[in-house]
Amino acid sequence: MNQRRTYSSPLTPLVKPLASMATVGIVFAGMLIAIVLGGSMGGSAIAQKLSSLLSLDSVQIWWYVTRAAGLTGYFLIWLSMVWGFAIPSKIFQPVLEGIFTYDFHEHLSLLGLGFVLLHVFVLLFDKFLPYNILQILIPFTGTYRPLWVGIGIISFYLLLLVTFTFYLRQQIGAQAFRSIHLLSLVGYIGATMHGLFAGTDSALPIAKVLYAGTFLVVVFFAAYWLIMRAFGKEAHATVQARNKSTLRTR
Length: 250
Description:
By secondary structure, the protein is mainly α. It has a domain at about 15-140 and about 205-240. The protein is built from ten helices and no strands. The protein starts with 14 loop residues before the first helix and ends with a helix.
């Protein structure tokens, strides 16, 4: 009996992480370029802004980086939200493997929080709008739009809590895990409000498309998840009623 031998390269386990890093790097670079060129209309203005970015101006570069990191983190958190709704509703089930979807959901959450941390950390070194450590950690203590920045800080804490429960599923139980996980929707809404009302890029076309498009997608997946859950409960109740009637007739 002939058996086919399969050969795997030692680099095979690194393919997915490297692909994820490359994809996220491209997204971050795209956000950075869009921010730099977002307010430029003429060729000379574009050249001037690119020159400012490439020369690593001490004032401009940190301001560009923190804004791009914030938008990238928001995009990854949104993608994690969509994946979180897609897993229980099984909308991608015929295409994607079940274990991979959970791993990918967790991976996206960690990447999103990582970029949010970069967004926050860079503010400590930014000379355009400097923050101190207390203003970053304690909501509503900053001087720049304290309400919306404070909502962003609270949203980050909620998303951090939800992500942390990934590693406590067995200790806290499935019901508590699912209940805490619903806070991710609150965190996402808060992050959206923070970006719209505290972000300096909210007037840019790319930011408007990003916030509006991602929010509508989340609304669709949330509605789909609720509908499927309602149908699932109804089907479960019907099966239980049939089982009870069958037992009575025996």
